[in-house]
Specification:
The protein has 117 residues and is mostly beta strands. The chain contains no helices and 11 strands. It has a single domain, classed as Jelly Rolls, CATH 2.60.120.10. A hairpin with a 4-residue loop joins strand 1 and strand 2.
């Protein structure tokens, strides 16, 4: 559930329905056409997350739960709670392991900007 008012917006992420994404399942807050600035996603990573990249989006990943790895342009980086990664446009990436991640796409998430090799 998302509540918008004149100067702020509140999202209750546990009331937002998850959608399938290349990483697993994502609850996307503030994702609507009149918000081009940024969105916030809580993503439950599946074991078969797909390598993908964005041409326009920068993403900040903040790991909430679990331990695993982040594949970044072919390099595997260990991650655990409190790890944060800034992923620039063009970086091929995926999370590996059973993880819960807070993802902040900047500008706001656009599903047309998910690319696969």
């Amino acid at each position: 559930m998302t509540t918008a008012t004149k100067n702020y917006e509140i999202a209750q992420l546990d009331q937002i329905e998850g959608v399938d994404c290349p990483c697993g399942s994502s609850r996307r807050a503030f994702a609507h056409p009149d918000n081009p600035v940024a969105t916030l996603h809580v993503v439950d990573i599946s074991q078969d997350a797909k390598v993908h990249y964005h041409k326009k989006l920068t993403e900040i990943y903040y790991f909430l739960e679990g331990e695993g790895q982040m594949e970044l342009d072919g390099e595997l980086i260990p991650v655990r709670p409190m790890t944060s990664i800034l992923i620039k446009p063009g970086c091929r990436h995926r999370a590996v392991g059973k993880l819960r991640v807070l993802v902040i796409p900047i500008p706001a998430f656009d599903p047309a900007d998910e690319w696969f090799d």
